[in-house]
């Protein structure tokens, strides 16, 4: 009997998650020309509800175009199956005689696969293919989606710094990143020297203090006549609460189905505006949240990222043949290679930036961090030093 | 005696304003190999204070690199000279025996040149070279800086729409544009069909009503299961006040030296968040201000824009030879050409989007608007239609 594969996408879309889908579909077709390949719409929800795309109806040309398109072509979901939901998902998979379920996503997605594996035993292969702009998956050197998003953020901050050389002031750019600061750190990937912004970076790995922040900005203004700051939306105060939660109050914050605090409102913008107005009155200051654009900007799709994402999809089929697990991107012998790791090594865990990536005061990149980012996100644009 | 040229940059930086600087310097060197070419730092402020870069010290290689670099390499300013300031600027120019002053900028910059012309008579040539992402200069088909910024905005909204297909909800993206909606309209430049976002656009040329906005969003959600909105920061209520001013109160808004209301805070974000929470409770909604990134993003420099900006700088030298005036980009016989127009035709005026660019209800592009944007900002990326 021909095999049946189910593929789905979970969590936030990225610039290259559809490459992983395209890679998986192409590899299944290559290995198993008779296989039935179904794409579940909106992640596990589509499996639960039996809402599928049959890839035999999709031309190779369309799949190629979809691979090059940001977003999540199958639709995504933030649903995190509990026991009851999980049972419905399993039933859905059994109903169509699925042999393997490939779920492309981040932490939460790998957690879902772990739950399903625990419930289903060896009756089916559950595979997690990595995807996250946060770059926060354990076992991975880096994750598909991070390089493109990082390149966008590096270019945005390089551009903003040039803007603020021309019209000096304080700029605070809020970057996605709940628990890991990699993407915020990428803002500094294309600095040439000390005078280049961003001059300060604040990441979730180090406690944030508003008082110290104002001091840092003051010192930077004295030295560089402007101050460009990159800050993670997930920065936390010393008590471990997210800055948003500390400011808004634990009862008032919104949470998603995974229990994560909603960081996407303008509360954080407002907090920084207020802190700067109080701490540095009269100084020109601008607070922007870069928002959703970095994670899927069609103009900054990095070709290495795209090709690694595709390869991760192909390798997911190999992992399916081996009974399931998580695809991890390792850096070995000077290149990125795909490896299989146990789901339990990735599921529900967060990889933080290594301590040595940051200077001791935690507000700048140290050499290992610079080296890491230079390797992944080499400079793309040559710039001429301004006259000011 | 050799001629002395002074060049300066005013107003907000763009992705290509340095091309205009490079074009002007190259053309002066070509026409007048003995000329002294001085760049004033931070616009008229540098002229007033005698703070100059001597371009004879700058290598052609560096000028080429600077041309390719966003920002404003000489530094910019928001100063608008009053009579006293103006006299100091004139004295500054006379002190160095300037024959011509080329000032690259937008409305306010051309206004400054008009004031200086009125004060100095024929003793010196005052030239305005156009630059603005707002695309709001009279006499111009379009302005250097607009195409690159428009391309960024078009790509950002194309990407955001793909994101919101995957995880449905409401997205409101706030785009720069105080009095003219061209840049916000560019958000819709790369739509393929009715189902593509942005589904709604709100520009300063049409009165904004929160109540109608909520109705528009509701209708869009019913039809497309998501709603992507592009809105100008300068949208105004029917009484002519900017939405920010209407919300915050006329006494509390901040103003710049030109008397312009500061639109860059998070007040507008918050107003939209509140309106959506009240009008569409429980619906996933995200409000982002695109902020400063679009105007100078190094990854979206359009080559046509760059080359037109360079040509505008070259042509400014021709206008200097003719005694001064404003450089305008006209569209004649199927191509963009440089023409000289009187400063008075541009100074202190605003070009709005033509009425016929928008549908009657004012929330979508009409065919003439689509045609205009397609001509200037042709689609750059092919995308595959998602399965959802």
Verbal overview:
The structure is a homodimer of 388-residue chains. The first copy, chain A, has 388 residues and is α/β, with parallel strands linked by helices. Chain A folds into two domains: 4-144 and 298-345, 3-Layer(aba) Sandwich (Rossmann fold); 147-295 and 352-376, Phosphofructokinase domain (Rossmann fold, 3-Layer(aba) Sandwich). Helices cover 38% and strands 16% of the residues of chain A. The first copy, chain A, contains 13 helices and eleven strands. In chain A, the strands form two sheets. In chain A, strands 3-2-1-4-5-10-11 form a seven-stranded mixed beta sheet, with helices on both faces. Chain A is elongated. The first copy, chain A, starts with a strand and ends in a 12-residue tail after the last helix.
Short description:
Two copies of one chain form a homodimer. The first copy, chain A, is α/β, with parallel strands linked by helices and 388 residues long. Chain A has 13 helices and eleven strands.
């Amino acid at each position: 009997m021909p095999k049946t594969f189910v593929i789905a996408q979970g969590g936030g879309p990225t610039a290259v998650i559809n490459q992983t889908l395209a890679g998986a579909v192409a590899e299944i077709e290559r290995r198993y020309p008779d296989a039935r390949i179904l794409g579940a719409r909106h992640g596990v929800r589509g499996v639960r509800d039996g809402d599928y795309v049959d890839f035999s109806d999709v031309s190779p040309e369309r799949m190629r175009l979809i691979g090059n398109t940001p977003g999540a072509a199958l639709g995504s979901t933030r649903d995190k199956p509990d026991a009851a939901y999980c049972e419905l998902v399993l039933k859905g998979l059994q109903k169509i005689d699925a042999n393997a379920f490939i779920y492309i996503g981040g932490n939460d997605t790998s957690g879902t696969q772990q739950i399903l594996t625990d419930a289903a035993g060896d009756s089916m292969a559950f595979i997690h293919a990595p995807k996250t702009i946060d770059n926060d998956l354990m076992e991975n050197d880096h994750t598909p989606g991070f390089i493109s998003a990082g390149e966008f953020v590096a270019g945005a901050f390089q551009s903003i710094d040039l803007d603020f050389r021309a019209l000096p002031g304080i700029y605070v750019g809020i970057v996605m990143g709940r628990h890991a600061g990699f993407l915020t750190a990428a803002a500094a990937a294309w600095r040439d020297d000390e005078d280049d912004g961003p001059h300060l970076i604040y990441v979730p790995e180090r406690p944030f203090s508003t008082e110290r922040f104002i001091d840092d900005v003051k010192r930077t203004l004295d030295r560089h006549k402007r101050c460009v700051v990159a800050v993670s939306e997930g920065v936390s105060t010393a008590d471990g609460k997210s800055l948003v939660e500390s400011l808004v109050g634990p009862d008032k914050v919104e949470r998603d189905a995974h229990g994560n605090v909603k960081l996407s409102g303008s509360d954080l913008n407002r907090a920084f505006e207020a802190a700067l107005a109080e701490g540095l009155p009269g100084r020109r200051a601008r607070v922007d949240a870069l928002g959703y654009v970095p994670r899927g900007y069609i103009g900054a799709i990095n070709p290495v990222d795209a090709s690694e994402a595709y390869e991760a999809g192909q390798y997911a089929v190999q992992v399916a043949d081996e009974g399931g697990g998580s695809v991890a991107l390792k850096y070995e012998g000077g290149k990125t290679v795909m490896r299989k790791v146990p789901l339990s090594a990735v599921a529900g865990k967060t990889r933080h930036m290594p301590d040595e990536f940051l200077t001791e005061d935690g507000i700048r990149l140290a050499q290992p961090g610079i080296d890491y980012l230079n390797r992944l996100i080499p400079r793309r644009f040559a710039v001429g030093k301004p006259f000011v």
